[in-house]
Structure formats: structure tokens, C-alpha cells
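re the bet — no i am not wrong, look at it urself. input seq straight from the record:
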Amino acid sequence: MDSNLKSKNSIGVMLISHGSTLPFARSVFNEIAEKLKEISDYPVEVGYMKVSEPTISQAADNLSLKSVDKIIAMPIFLADGIHTLVDIPLMLGMEKKSTDPRAPNGVYPEDHYLNHLDDVDFDGEIVLLDCIGPDPLILQIIKNKIDDVFTDSKSLNKNNTGIILISHGSRLNHNSKFINELLKMFKEKTDYKTTLGFMELTKPSISTAINELQKNEDFENLIAVPIFISPGMHTKRDIPQILKLPNNIKPKNGHDHHHNHNHTHEHEKMKFNGKIIYLDPIGSNPLLIDIIKQRVDEETNK
């Protein structure tokens, strides 16, 4: 018993997030970290890629102060993409897992953030886990959120309501595989009228997906489900703008999270004029905490 406790105390967990200018996004990841601490014996720190602090290198420093000799780093991302396959490994001082389509030759512009990383100063072992992926518990979180909408509303039913799962999109195909697998699982478990749409970079766009769903299904209401972990500019501003919903989120200090592409350059306009129920992201749901703990425990027990 004492040996197992000592083993766990020598292992620290780093939860890696992108970072956001919005404070409630950071609050969600702080809640995730605190909830993980409550159900485990691991020291836990959050490390952010950009914008927010602590950075990944600062999170490693914080874990070093807790006398850990191994860090298990888990990207709290639902699907793989450039961040999980290229940016995060490089930020941890590891080899990237994929060729970067932004710079296939590995040479970045001088002002690119990957040229200005703080080295991770940690003498022990760092293990980088995979992202979350289409886990059955993620499906259960989404299904529970949708079921709650129908339970709380007397006017909504499966016959007059459509559902769209909304994902970010990526230059790589991993994001598309993730959300399509999630949609397949969802359709196997429910009989809702469901489609999926991407905010950018991947087709179908949100507007196109909604318009196509309407061609085959008759519905007066639409439940829009952002498949994101935490609130941020995408869920608070970009997606509502596409859905023609009110939003008052403005960039802070001029930071607009540019990637050399436009979040709202959809060529097709949404033609749905009914009621839209826009749900919150996954947040610090207890089932998400269970996924993280399970993945970390699996690595610990190898």
C-alpha cells in the first residue's frame, strides 16, 4: 500500500490545453485539474500552449517543485491535429509525431511561435499520452446533454427537432475521423435526426450541413452541440456568428487567434429559420475526469 502511494506521488500529471483570452476557459481547466486531484493521488498541473499561463514549461517547473520524477502529459483535446501531433511534442522537447503541413520542410518563419519556445527543464521522464478521441464516455456526455434538453422542454420532440454536432476542423484528417466516428456511434445509440458540421478547414461547413439535413428531414427546432472541451472564442463568438445567434465576445487586447484562415468565410448561408438551442461545451463533466484518470492509471500501471 505504501509502495503504491509512493509510486503515485513520484508521478505528476500535466493537463495540456491550448489557452484562451477568455477567463472562463481557464476556469474550466482549473476545475478539471481540481476534480482529478479529488479522485486520485497525483500532483496535477495545467499547462497552456499559448496565450494563458502557466505555460507548458512553467507547468513542468511546478511539478518539479513537487518532487516528481515522471510527468504524464495528456493533451485535453478531443481529436488529434497539428497541436497534438506537432506543437505539443515540440513544446515538451520531443520529436513531432507528424509532418507539419504548415512547414513540411520543418523550417518556420522567424516570428513563428515554435521558434520561441521555453525549454522544458525537467530531469525525469516525460510521457505524452494520446488525445481523448471518440471515447464512449464522450458520447455519453453528449447524449446526456441532448436528452436533458428534451426532458426540460414540452415543445420539443424527436420528430420536430434536428441535431448538429459541431467540430472545429483541421488541416489534418484526424479531426474529421473523430467527429465522424462519434456521429456513427451517436446514430447507433439514438434515433435523433442528426448531422455534423465543421467550423472551418473541413467540409461540410455548419451551414451546408444544416441545409442538407433540412432537405431530408422536416424540423422546426435545432439543437447545436459544440464538440469542444471548454468555452472560448470559437464557442462564444465564431460558431454563434455562423448560427446567427447573439454574441458579445470581442478579442482582448487585439488578439484574434489568427491562423491565416477565416472562421466565418462560409460560401453557403444557413437557411434554417426555426428555433436554435445552443448547448455549452463538455466542460469539467465527471465523465471526462474519469477518462483522464483511466488513461493516466493505465500508463502508471504499465
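see?? Residues 1-6, 251-265 have pLDDT under 50 and may be disordered. told u. also The CA atoms of residues 66 and 229 lie 27 Å apart. so pay up
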